Amino acid sequence: MKKVIITGADGFIGSNFIKSLVKEGVEVWAVVYPQSVTKSRIDKWEGVHCIECDIDALEDMASYFPREADGFYHFAWQGVHANDRNNMSLQMGNIELCLKCLRFAAQVKARKFILPGSTSEYLYYGRPINEQAVPSPQNAYGSVKVALRYLAKQYAEELGIDFIYVVITGIYAADRRDNNVIFYTIDKLLRGEKPSVTRLEQLWDYVHIRDVAQALALIGDKGRRGAFYAIGRGDNQPLYKYIEIIHRCIDPKLPIGIGEVPYVNDILPSSCIDLSAVYEDTGFVPKINFEDGIREVIDTMREEIGNE
Question: For residues 52 and 33, is the Cβ–Cβ distance under 8 A?
Fold first, then answer.
């Protein structure tokens, strides 16, 4: 039976990933913050060992974890909310937390350490993100992510543990609510109101959480030491294309205000990815197209609005 260790296990990505793993018979050691209010997402599943522990105390808890786990996924991150992304002291704290997790992974002889990054590290790169992408972070959150990619990789080499860096594009799911144009548009249209947005010409990519979970599992199994992988669907199309799909799925007769809001400046961000590396090394192919996946979101939000 495969064994993995996951920090930030009760977060959105962590909990959905664990749900996918236990279905495949993988045994999971899930590290959550003490007194976690979202622990119930994961502690009900067979095969999950839920461990409430500060990352600072991990090294003292080694006896609770398996030796030679197949993978160590470090999802825990402080300061993910928009209001905290320029909190330098908070963001800088993530560096030491990650390095402590690397030391612990080496202590328990985990075989691989997988660290997720963010497309926010490359918002103004302007091309699909791959290992050669030039970072262009716009806040402390993105800057620390960039720095940690290189620091953690170097430290993992010193510790003798395989290190893999993963950048995930825009994730959506029926049980997630983000403050972005996708959820804004769905909410407005379902309420019979007109959404007003920019021309939405920036290139973007969206991926369903079930595809993310599949990719992460494959990377844990087959990922190459020192690799950089981008996870997404790879549609890489203008944002307005996604809005047109949403409009059509809800009611194409409703008014929609594409172009009513001016751009803040002429430099457009982008969030699109190059899937070639993850496909070549692991065979990952996303299965859920945007229209099918977003219909799940629309149906769930319609029910929620109807129950208000």
Answer: yes
Tokens coding 167 = 């950048």
Mean pLDDT, rounded, for 108-135: 95
Euclidean distance between CA atoms 108 and 160, whole angstroms? 12
The arithmetic mean of pLDDT across residues 110-126, rounded, is: 95
pLDDT at residue 159, rounded to an integer = 97
Rounded CA-CA distance 17/20 in Å is 5
Q: Check pLDDT > 90 for residue 1.
A: no
**Number of Cα atoms under 13 Å in the Cβ half of residue 31:** 26
Residue range 3-168 in CATH 3.20.140.10: no
pLDDT at 30: 96
Please check whether residue 222 is in contact with residue 162, taking contact to mean a CB–CB distance below 8 angstroms: no
- Strand order across the 112-118 sheet: 48-52, 27-32, 3-7, 71-74, 112-118, 162-168, 228-231
Sequence-distant (6+) residues with CB within 8 A of 68 are: 108, 109, 110, 111
pTM of the model: 0.95
Same CATH topology for 3-168 and 174-205+234-268+288-306? Answer: no
- Between CA 144 and CA 148 the distance in angstroms is 6
pLDDT at site 165: 98
Task: Give the pLDDT mean for 8-17.
Answer: 94
Q: Is 111 exposed, middle or buried (0-12, 13-18, 19+ CB in 10 A)?
A: middle
- When pLDDT is averaged across residues 121-141 and rounded to a whole number, the result is 95
User: Beta 170-172 vs 162-168: how paired, if at all?
Assistant: unpaired
Q: Which CATH superfamily is domain 174-205+234-268+288-306 in?
A: UDP-galactose 4-epimerase, domain 1 (3.90.25.10)
Domain locations along the chain: 3-168, 174-205+234-268+288-306
